[in-house]
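Record type: monomer structure entry
Structure origin: computed from sequence
Chain ID: A
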Amino acid sequence: MSDSNDKKESAKEGIAALLNPAEMFKLGRLTLFSRYTVEGNLAGAHKSPLQGPSSEFATHKQYGLGDDPKHIDWRVFARTDKHYVKQFDDETNLRVYLAFDRSASMDFSSSPDGPTKFHHASRLAAALGYVVVKARDSIGLFLHSDKVDLRVEAANSLQHLNNMLKRIQQTPPSSGSNIAAALHEIAGAVRRRGMIVIISDLYDDEAEIAVALARLRKQRHDVIVFHVLDPAEIDFALMKPCELVDLESGEKFGVDPKAIAADYRKSFNEFLERHRKACASLNIDYRIVRTDQPLDTFVRAYLEERKRMSK
């Protein structure tokens, strides 16, 4: 019986393999709010640069051919004896694009029982995608390593999300990294203002990544960076001499953790700080995502914080 159940679990793909029903129930009541103006197709909960019918007043314009008489402001007419119509800020659905890193370094786990960075990132993508779709917003994907390997246009349906997650699972980590080049390619492909969610371990040239992030912000995208890391990368809790393997180059080298621990932690903290500062200077949300922390707790806390910031 247990062998049969194991086979069923391993055969699962899509959202069912990444989120359990209890997690989906909790996530279904959350919303990913944009902090900036976006452009979309459906009526939703996010501010649009286009003007149209909604509940939030924006400005007046003089009544003209084609304007709806029901929007005439009669109070203004009483004061000026001229016809002016009210204009409103339209609200729209949000297009969210995941920039998902599948380079070989994402295949790392420090524990045989723990998730790899790629698997934890896949669960994060599933959680965010589920929140987006349930809120009637649209989700899309750019899966990349040293180039964009797969592009999925943004759409709003659970079936679309499920198929997108299957594509991620069917394209495991491999190859090297060129995160900046992938982000520049995404900037060239996504012309309408939306949200770009970067899910990566960010192991690449920090200065080049910062330039690519600046381009996305210059295009007025709302950008979020989720920095996915294994606890061993952060804490460096290795105790005994061992051999480490670079997952992208295949290079092997022996290390004595006790001898290099202080220098490693200093260098790694400087690496994190460079990313923090670059994102802060561009008004980009930056969050470290540890693979040993409960995903639903992290997502809920972040989305509730973002909701407060979006008001």
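Annotation 1: The chain has two domains: 15-36+95-310, 46-92.
Annotation 2: Residues 29 and 131 are 8 Å apart (CA to CA).
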